[in-house]
Amino acid sequence: MAVSERQVAAFADKLAGQIPFDTSPRHLAGPGDIRHVTHGLAAAGWSAVSDPLSAEILLRSPDQRHRLQFDPQSNTSAWWRLRAGPTDTEPGWYAEFGELVPAEVLTGFTDALIAPPVHQQDPWQPVTSANWHRDADDTAHSPDSMCHIALRALSEFHDRPSWHIKTREPNDGPWLGSQIWHAYFDERTPTHLVGAFLTALADRSPLQRGMYDRTGHYNAVNEPSLLSPQQVAGAYTARIESLRARARSARRQQTNPATTPAKAHTSQSAVHR
Fold first, then answer.
1. Average pLDDT in the 43-60 region?
2. Which single residue of 116, 193, 217, 244 has CA 20 to 30 Å from 254?
């Protein structure tokens, strides 16, 4: 199921019809519209396998390895769950995200799943570059101390550390503030995907929200955007087209694999003869 031109146009029209506000910091910007995530995956060839009349959305990747579930009726704090099955060369892994995780931050993760970055980087690098405070014990927190990142074992029964990101209310004296949203990546989640999520999270550029859109917390700052509604809609459409192009390129490479060295050598020998 590819996202249709009508669906893309409908969402672009919605964006173009609202007054955008620059909302920051990103971890308090609120959920935004889930179509940033679902349209991007559909453009890359992911298919919907859930009941179209259900509130739950279930998407599968073309190779059937990855499955993304969005369940707004979940009895837990995780509304998004992504599972990757094991292959002959790679282990399976799991990630989950809370209700108020910004959709545009989540797309940093899903876009990297579709098209991995060319250059790998230390996942902590975008965090420290954005002036988040990095502690010595593999933890970090945002400048406002409301978003926390920790790389630690889930329990004493786990040998390898996993990633835990939580946005909380400000501390009330010695007590931790209540949780606003969370993200979790198990110990087998590819590092470049975690890095892509943290890059989108720590990005200091604001997210665009409509006048009455829900934010994650009243500490979020809303200012009239320098972007026009048409520019916001255009950026969304350009991203969808880019993902479509990446998916087409990947399919072409699978259908027409590069010439093997043995074949290339044979061809060159024939030319010399």
1. 94
2. 193
Give yes or no for a contact between 217 and 180, defined as CB atoms under 8 angstroms apart: yes
CA of 150: how far to CAs of 76, 84, 138, 185, 196, in Å? 21, 22, 6, 11, 16
Per the DSSP assignment, residues forming a β-bridge with 21 are 209, 224
Neighbours of 246 (CB within 10 A): 15
DSSP helix/strand/coil, 219: coil
Number of domains in the chain: 1
The SS3 of residue 9 is helix
More confident residue, 118 or 142: 142
Distance CA(59)–CA(248), nearest Å, equals: 19
* Distance (Å, whole) CA 82 – CA 252: 26
For residue 35, the SS3 value is helix
Contact at 8 Å (CB) between 97 and 183?
Answer: yes
Domain carrying residue 240: 5-272
Average pLDDT, the chain: 89
Strands (E), 7-134: 21-24, 47-48, 57-60, 66-70, 78-84, 93-98, 133-134
Give the C-alpha separation, 195 to 163, whole Å: 11
Q: Which residues pair with 140 in a beta bridge?
A: 134, 149
Q: Each residue of 191-231: pLDDT tens digit?
A: 999 999 999 999 999 999 998 899 999 999 999 999 999 99
User: Which pTM does this prediction carry?
Assistant: 0.89
